[in-house]
Amino acid sequence: MKAIVKTEKGVGNISLEERTVPEIGRGEVLIRIKAAAVCGTDLHIVHDQFPYWPPVILGHEFAGIIESVGSEVTDWKPGDRVVGEPHTLSCGNCFYCRTGHIQNCESKRSPGWGIDGCFTEFMRYPEPKLLHRLPPEISFESGSLVEPIANVVTDIVERGLLSAGDSVAIIGPGPIGLMAGIVARVSGASRVILIGTKMDEPMRIPVARKLGVFDEIFIADEYDCVPLIKELTSGLGVDMVVEASGSQGGIAMGVSVLRKYGRFIGIGLPGRDVVEFPYKMAMLKVLQVICNMSTSYTSWERSISILKQNENIFAQLISHVFDLADWEKGFDLLERKAAMKVVFKPGL
What we know:
By secondary structure, the protein is an alpha/beta fold. The protein is about 30% helix and about 25% strand. Strand 1 and strand 2 (about 15-20) form a beta hairpin. The longest helix is centred in the last third of the chain and has 18 residues, at about 295-315. The radius of gyration is 20 Å and the shape is globular. The mean pLDDT is about 95.
């Protein structure tokens, strides 16, 4: 089978290799990958900026069909359509595992960096309890988006407590930012504002406009967004900011456009270890600052339900579909911000 492999440590070191179909153990399943989406984490691994254990097959956002099951697997059978959480091999004993946060276990080894992932034809999946059923109404291509959607649902619905009637500003129109806008809108937000930069205008802003979920879209290079947003919210500021850019300017703007007692939802990961934060303003506004990483178990079923009802919107985020052999094209487009979501379909 074909597989996109990070062969060794260092920048680059990616190749398309021929691998044997993996054998599965008694409590494991073998999944035929039908669609696998590229995440920013995959690009971080390419640039040696995220932990990984090479040689390893990349990818963790997938949808597929169960090909075979181990003798001890009782809840799944060949032919089942599935997506799966990338929280495999958590230790089960640490503080985070024992308090229900296996996604933050420091010992876990997830597909795509800790164990072989989904940029291939068949993937060995060691923990069937982390699988979720993909309804037949959802295409495999859209199904590969469940994992990033679950990140957004975890962050803004479960932890951020987004409520019907909330006004929301999204900073950063990348895939996660646009997904946050969709989730906010379908969850009942009264106003959803998107803030980007001129760099986003060739690809991301046109996609955002087509989605039909944003009431206003501002380009921060061209406008002082703070007074504009204050004017739109009767001088108060928005109820929630979703900071999806990870940029110094975006973080500062997020604090500025929030109302008092507003919620700052951090999703974007900064490129630097230390960034400035307007702490005094946040204190004077009595803000809730909620930082996020990964997905909860409950967010997956919620995300599948949201996707099932709004697939026509989410599918517009998939800008390119490639065979595994064309991985270099897909990665290059993403590096140049000339693509939104790239999906690999083995055997396309």
